[in-house]
Amino acid sequence: MAFVKLTLVTFGLLYAAALSGLYVFQRDLQYFPARHDPTPEAVGLQGVERVLLPTPDGETLVLWLSPARPDQPTILFLHGNAGAIADRADRLAFYQSRGFGAAFLSWRGYGGSTGQPTEAGLLIDARTAYDTLRDRGIPPGLIVLVGESLGTGVAVQTAARVPVGAVVLEAPFTSAVDIAGRAYPWVPVRLLMKDQFRSAAHITGVRAPLLILHGEMDTVIPAGFGRALFALANDPKTFLSLGPVGHEALFDPATWAKGAEFIDRLGLSTP
């Protein structure tokens, strides 16, 4: 009996220690920022301005900004939880080739931007970039939010708060806490997780045309999460399966092309 009691106590202590560690270091498990901050020219881009944006809470963000051709939309690109915007230079060049403007935002704590990432902070960052585009004379109807993976959580909440021309979500989720609960079923993540990115709670606030893209073999964010979010969204909305591909499809030009074709079909233009 004493052995059983000791075993239970030991297990309880180990479990408590594991929960404590996960709670303290949870953001290290959620965000994987790369710090490198080359100039756009250093990664082969032309016609891209490197802009420093002050945020209302005292951080400084890096934004790579490329102008649109006349009457073409500008893509405000919100990247995923790993790497830096410099790792997405080929995507920016792709948007340029389509005539779109491109605004690639480096989250706080990522490539050249100050601070540390949090959900509240990333929402401030996205709004700061959006306001910068508006201040430069770009009308809301010509701003398209494109969210990649974790960036979809910011895109949904931003589009629910400000007017935009369209929203493209690549491998979105109902909430980040749903993904965490799947990865850590033995942890009460809904009680402990700080940055939950509850897209399902905000998607009904999005009134702009919506495209969701998802790979059927995505093991990072399974396609079922994208479909569940799609079911909650307002019309007009489109869901496109990327076929038997995984999360790596977000770095495939064929995926970006599907988003670009959707935007072209909308015929966004200056009112």
CATH evolutionary superfamily: Alpha/Beta hydrolase fold, catalytic domain
Helix-strand sequence:
HHEEEEEHEHEHEHHEHEH
Instruction: Give the overall silhouette.
Output: globular
CATH architecture: 3-Layer(aba) Sandwich
Distance between the termini: 78 Å
Residue fraction in strands:
15-25%
Q: What structural class do the secondary elements suggest?
A: alpha/beta
* Rg of Cα set: 20 Å
Helix content: 25-40%
In the sheet with the most strands, the strands line up as: 2-3-6-4-7-8-9-10
**Overall number of domains:** 1
Q: What is the number of beta strands? A: 10
- Low-confidence parts lasting 5 or more residues at pLDDT below 50? none
* CATH structural class: Alpha Beta
Q: How would a textbook summarize the main sheet? A: 8 strands, mixed
Fill in the CATH topology. Rossmann fold
Keywords:
271 residues; alpha/beta; Rossmann fold; 8-stranded mixed β-sheet; two-stranded parallel ribbon; 9 helices; 18% strand; globular
Structural overview:
The chain is of the alpha/beta class. The protein has a single domain (31-266), classed as 3-Layer(aba) Sandwich (Rossmann fold), CATH 3.40.50. The chain is built from 9 helices and 10 strands. A hairpin with a 5-residue loop joins strand 2 (49-54) and strand 3. Helix 4 (119-135) crosses helix 5 (150-159). It starts with a helix and ends in a 5-residue tail after the last helix. The model has no long low-confidence stretch (mean pLDDT 92).
